[in-house]
Amino acid sequence: MKIQEKIIKDEILEKLELGNFYKILNQNIFPLLNEEEQTFVKELEDFCLELAPKIDREKDVYVLFPKLGEHGYIQRMNKYKDFTPYGMKYEVLLGTILSICDPQLDLARLASGILCGNPTYQHGETSEISKVQADLMEGKGVGCIMITEPERGSDAVNMTTICEKADDGVIFNGEKVFTTNGPKADYFIGYGVYDVKDPRGTMVQAMFKK
Ligand SMILES: Cc1cc2nc3c(=O)[nH]c(=O)nc-3n(C[C@H](O)[C@H](O)[C@H](O)COP(=O)(O)OP(=O)(O)OC[C@H]3O[C@@H](n4cnc5c(N)ncnc54)[C@H](O)[C@@H]3O)c2cc1C
């Protein structure tokens, strides 16, 4: 038996490079995009083409977070500083283009910038929340979201993490699993319930520091 390790010829292999993937993507999506959106795509692809050769796959993706932060690429759903354009369409374009460059980096930034970052745009502008938001958006801090629990999995609205009111806030007690960025995170969005018999009616969301 001959064991064949290589199944793609060199002349094809050399064409499987990021620039060509982006050319194919652009041919397909540009007819759907206006001028501003096309400019955003081209700038982001240029950023990725410059970044890709410098990625050290031996290192955690988090070392690349500040580079994303410098260009406002931790997320593009909400407005942060002067990073425009922004909105859901730009966030989808960001996810599409960055995940072709480095899928692991894209999932990590999505968990940090969107799943953990979104609540910082929804709950007022206190100095504490603004500090967390800046840490996340600039890629200096890492965020995550804690929903999934053992024995629950997809049944994410029937949580067993119990919340109890205390004088200075709320105490969360429970166990979470499958938390993207969890081991490295500085900020944790956590979900729990006051009453396990009425999880939908008593759910609490809070942010924790490491
Ligand atoms: C890439 C990735 C990143 C993730 N990041 C996070 C994160 O950051 N934070 C977080 O909290 N979680 C995260 N998760 C976890 C994710 O939320 C769980 O994987 C999800 O909730 C599924 O749970 P489970 O794997 O235990 O599957 P299970 O719930 O055990 O489901 C197993 C199978 O049973 C099926 N099934 C489940 N319930 C039913 C039902 N009622 N009826 C019929 N079929 C059913 C499912 O479709 C599936 O095929 C992540 C998962 C992935 C894949």
Summarize the structure.
This protein has 210 residues and is an alpha+beta fold.
Explain how this protein is built.
It is a single chain. Helix 3 runs parallel beside helix 5 (88-101). This protein has helices at residues 10-13, 18-29, 35-51, 65-70, 88-101, 103-116, 118-122, 127-137; strands at 143-146, 162-166, 169-173, 187-193, 203-209. It folds into 2 domains: 11-126, Orthogonal Bundle (Butyryl-Coa Dehydrogenase, subunit A, domain 1), CATH 1.10.540; 143-209, Butyryl-CoA Dehydrogenase, subunit A, domain 2 (Beta Barrel), CATH 2.40.110. It contains 8 helices and 5 strands; from the N terminus they run ααααααααβββββ. Strands 1-4-5 form a 3-stranded mixed sheet, with helices on one face. The protein has a two-stranded antiparallel sheet with strand order 2-3. A hairpin with a 2-residue loop joins strand 2 and strand 3. 40% of the residues lie in helices and 13% in strands. The chain has 210 residues and is of the alpha+beta class. Flavin-adenine dinucleotide binds next to strand 1. Residues 111, 144-148, 153-154, 156, 178-180 line the site of flavin-adenine dinucleotide.
